[in-house]
Amino acid sequence: MSLTDYDVLSFDCYGTLIDWEAGILAVLRPWADACHLDVEDTELLALFARHEAQAEASFPTEPYPRILARSMVGLGEDLGVAVTTAQAEALALSVPDWPAFPDSAEALGRLALRYRLIILSNVDRASFDGSQRRLGVDFTSVITAEDVGSYKPSPRNFDALENEVARLGVPAHRHLHVAQSLFHDHVPAKARGLPTVWINRPRDGWGATPRPAVDVEPDWVFPTMAAFADAVEADPAA
Fold it and tell me: What residues pair up with 9 in beta bridges, in sequence order?
């Protein structure tokens, strides 16, 4: 297998291209401090991950801002603090403010010279529009949870992705999926035989993503998007 064997790269966005943990903590950390909660960032993110996954599974057709609001209310219940509507809305509407990782836009620009790029994201169209402006490239296709009516790791989202790749006229074996989350992306992608790249950025623990229920082995692992783009360009076939 070579990174140059593919014509299409599909990407998870949040955690892979956009630093969603920084964006989430920009809301949760001041809230926790104002409530005088003795809780570390790692615990806030772990609680968020649990409630977000539960909300996405229980309310698959709700738009992502509502999922975020539900997640914050649940997090507050765990910590014994009532969350106001305004506080929940602060997280719900924060996605367009979440920063891109410093290497994302430059790496995507390099990859776009060789591949068609697709987004497969667990957000809504309006939220992603704000993030796309930070990423600086035009994606060939964008598939959101709002479009599909379910959230990853549901197989329905990967059905939609494979259908889009076929619509573009690209053979299935020329498609490579790139993501950070083992839980949301690599487990369901590998279950259907899709090759994957794991962007495993250094961090403390599992962060804002749940631990996967089963072991999974991505085909390639890189610590950053820049390292992934470097590897593509270094491939002799490139």
Answer: 117, 176
